[in-house]
Amino acid sequence: MPEFIIGARGHDFGRHTPEELLTSIGKAGFRCTQLAYTKAIEDVKSYADITPELVEATKAAVAASGVSIAVDGTYVELSYADEDKRRAEVAKVLSQIPVAKALGAGCMGSETTNMAKQPGVTRKEAQEALLRSLGEILPLCEEQGVLFAVECVYYHAMNTPEAVKMVLDTMASPNLRVICDFANYVGPENASVDAQRRIWDQVGSWYGDKIAAVHFKGQNFQPDGTLYSTSLEDSCVDYAGGFAMLKAMPQAALPVLREEAVPARAASDIAFIRRFCI
Asked: Xylose isomerase-like TIM barrel domain location, by residue (predicted)?
């Protein structure tokens, strides 16, 4: 069974210097973080603002706080069918691969583009764009020894276990990994525990050994199917089934990152998450 290391998404703590941010995360009781510079670090408006000095300050903050960088969060749109837009997004990732390496991040991570962002584009076209993007990103990741993880999201280009398996099989890269957010596999039509258990069986058997990080958040659905965020206690997500799958995986350790963290609720959230990790 992997060791589950409970952490939090950095930008849920606001924008700070690296020292202030990681100190706050550590004091809240979390041991690791998903760091997105453009969302969590003050004065960083674009990837061009991430200087070698800032990276060194981040490394010093990691050492001082004991809070490791589980995921270097690169919020990019890898599935744009428009080639100029897609290449611009890929360029952002390529610029950050040396940063992730310098930080010793567990992996880089990105979602795969909300389908609502490009009306008229089919999911097949979006997935083909995703494959082109990964084909440009993964060679440098392999050269630099950096893992790159993509995240399945119900309403994005890569939206089901079948789609994840297709991407992994097609790319066949030793450096391609998956971020597993249980909530992001669940829609109103598959929110029952039985339906979710079938999803976890697919995830575990098809690519569970490729999971590099886990996201943990609460959600539920209105009677009309509208998604809304909840506390962890009020979520419809089958955490017990998901973690039963994870416990059978061969990874030595897995970061479990609280998304939508409220620092004042950190202690109760950590206690809730820990129930599934033992």
From this structure: 27-250
